[in-house]
Amino acid sequence: MQIKGNVAIVTGGASGLGLATTKRLIAAGATVLIVDLERSNGAEVAAGLGHGTEFAAANVTEEDSMAAAVAKAETMGRVAILVHCAGIGGSKRVVDKDGAPMPLAHFANIVNVNLIGSFNAVRLASAAMAKNEPVEGERGVCIMTASIAGYEGQIGQTPYAASKAGVIGLTICAARDLASRNIRVCTIAPGIMDTPMLGRLPDNIRASLAASVPNPARLGDADEYAMTAQQIVENPYLNGETIRVDGALRMGFR
Ligand SMILES: NC(=O)c1ccc[n+]([C@@H]2O[C@H](COP(=O)([O-])OP(=O)(O)OC[C@H]3O[C@@H](n4cnc5c(N)ncnc54)[C@H](O)[C@@H]3O)[C@@H](O)[C@H]2O)c1
Fold first, then answer.
1. Which of 49, 96, 144, 253 could be disulfide-bonded to 187 (CB atoms 3.0-4.6 Å)?
2. Structural domain boundaries in the chain
3. pTM, two decimal places
4. Does the annotation count 160 as an active-site position?
């Protein structure tokens, strides 16, 4: 599908992978609505990017604020692209060193943001796309963000890995559901990308993470995620698949 002339909703677009994707989609001729938390710097980011870029404050876990964000995108033009990058991490073992079980709320929160938030974005964006007249047989494309932790979760990652495995699982199913609407659904599973999410780690941990990647032995660049998102939008035969972008990394247990 051609990017130029379409409106793209980029959740988590104020930072990291979402911001890199926003920049790439603007360069390819899309008008972007950044959807991010109220407390994010999304408004400043959108104003700085120009090219009609707008910001909607919304929490991906909420029905109302996300529906309002999608409605705002519809006022900007033909909503045909969703790149859903909003997500959170978090590290906690099932049983901690003092023998206490993980609070259920910790698990539920990560699954709520990463998995239920992904479905919320896809269901609302695809309902908007379904109203489009098809162009070259397509009404729209939804891209979600999993993680290689959805395949090989490490120690401390049970909620994160479960949430991302859920995203991987819903990809083919949503693609099948939306096939009759001519809307494609794919997911990107990044390895270790150099974003503010990883920037919070100490330098020695970042260096050892970089060295653990077979080739190239470095952290991934956010634009390498964005390049993949662009390819998914542009290549009409990519559908129902989760694509790893990880330099051949297969996670060890820690
Ligand atoms: N950076 C990595 O190495 C890496 C690897 C694998 C997967 N991922 C996934 O990629 C996605 C983007 O990560 P990133 O590295 O760009 O992180 P980031 O922290 O730089 O950006 C995430 C953005 O999502 C927003 N966000 C968080 N919760 C939200 C909510 N409830 N509603 C709306 N917006 C919300 C944040 O405000 C932030 O702007 C996440 O889903 C993450 O799990 C990242």
1. 144
2. 7-245
3. 0.98
4. yes
Handedness of CA 62, 10, 161, 183 (dihedral sign): positive
**Residue 59 amino acid letter:** N
Instruction: Check if the beta carbon of residue 213 is closer than 8 Å to that of residue 248.
Output: yes
Q: What is the pLDDT of residues 80-128, one digit of tens each?
A: 999 999 999 999 999 999 999 999 999 999 999 999 999 999 999 999 9
Instruction: Look at ligand 1, atom 41, and give the residue with the nearest C-alpha.
Output: 87
The second-level CATH assignment, the architecture, of 7-245 is 3-Layer(aba) Sandwich (3.40)
> 27 by DSSP, 3-state: which?
helix
Ligand 1 neighbours, Cβ below 6 Å, are: 11-12, 14-18, 36-37, 40, 59-61, 85-89, 113-114, 117, 145, 147, 190, 192-193, 195-198
Own/partner long-range contacts of 60-64 (Cβ < 8 Å, ≥24 apart): 60/11, 60/12, 60/35, 60/84, 60/86, 60/113, 60/117, 60/118, 60/120, 60/121, 61/112, 61/113, 61/116, 61/117, 61/120, 62/120, 63/120
**137 C-alpha to center of ligand 1: Å?**
32
Counting from 1 in the atom list of ligand 1, the atom nearest the Cα of 86 is 24
Identify the helix (H) or strand (E) that includes residue 135: none
Q: How is residue 232 written in tokens?
A: 């998914």
Q: How far is the CA of 133 from the centre of ligand 1 (A)?
A: 32
